[in-house]
Amino acid sequence: MDLSQLSTVLTEINSEFDQRIAEASTLSVIDQLKSDFVGKKGRVALLYRQLGQIEASLRPSAGELINAVRDRIEATIEDLYPAVRRAERSKTIASDVNDPTSVILRSYQGSGRIHPVTRTRMELEDIFVGMGFSVEEGPEAESEWYNFEALNIPKFHPARDGQDSFYLDLDGDDQVVLRTHTSPVQIRVMQSQTPPIYAVMPGRVYRRDTADARHTIGFHQIEGLVVDKGITFGHLASTIETFTKAYFGPDMNARLRPAYFPFTEPSAEFEVTCTICRGKGCRTCSGTGWIELGGCGMVHPNVLRAAGLDPEVFSGFAFGFGIDRLTQMRDEIADMRILTENDLRYMRSI
Ligand code: PHE
What we know:
Layout: H1 3-23, H2 27-38, H3 43-50, H4 59-97, H5 101-107, H6 116-130, E1 134-135, E2 141-143, H7 144-147, E3 167-168, E4 176-178, H8 184-192, E5 197-206, E6 218-228, H9 233-248, E7 254-261, E8 264-273, E9 290-299, H10 301-306, E10 315-322, H11 323-330, H12 338-341, H13 344-349
Parallel strand pairs: 1-5
Antiparallel strand pairs: 2-4, 3-4, 5-6, 6-10, 7-8, 8-9, 9-10
Helix pairs in contact: 1-4, 2-4, 6-11
The protein binds phenylalanine (PHE).
């Protein structure tokens, strides 16, 4: 072999290496290339072994030619390592990050269960779907317009007080508030559907209360809305009564008592037979035999108008009540705060 044959071989090795390295994207392929080209039994090592066939005076130059190719290949590979290693790591992270279940499944042998409040919500949805209602949702962060204005709650109303509402610190024309009730979803439903509307709207709401045995700052309500031609207070009363018997059982009753809400007129509070004493009177119901569950009433004409409906054509009723409160009654929970603490001893006990 002479020098020109050697450089032909080296040129071939170079170009073959370039071709293969261009396609290499994993560490294991690069390691393979390294051993194929500059490893102990690789292409370059083979050439060193053939140096003996070259005339002695040319051997130093031949050795330099081979060294140059070896150095280039090794340097190229070294340069490539960090980027490929980084790419592989982020691929692993991406595939790991969304799979915490693999860890949970291995370490947790018990079966999971649905949170009591979620269970109540699902039962309520079932009952209302059975009565012909659809289930709708709305955003938890609302503009003041949806949460207050459109619901006929004027600027000076105490419900707007910063004491009761959480305001979000956002740049924009509209003030944004964490919804204080599910009633704003009434407006959204009336805007996006044409009557007849028969809908329930469950969801989380927020109030700046101090948490105690019967209050948490984030809780759940379910709103009901019916809008159609010729809807009367009688329809409201019978819907509440039907729901009460379906949820609590046939021996339970509901009653309505006059109340005030800006978005309904007339308005009422609805009460159901005390679940603890079944109406006889006990400490929980302060001896009355009744427990207050929520509010209701005929949708105020201003509210229909705000949502773009003509109160001369349509009428409707709405109701709303707390899902957590209902869960508290059903499961006889002394302190509501347990529902947000996720204490497994409690969660497993119910
Ligand atoms: N939004 C009222 C509340 O949070 C409840 C309600 C809903 C009253 C619908 C009347 C009609 O207290």
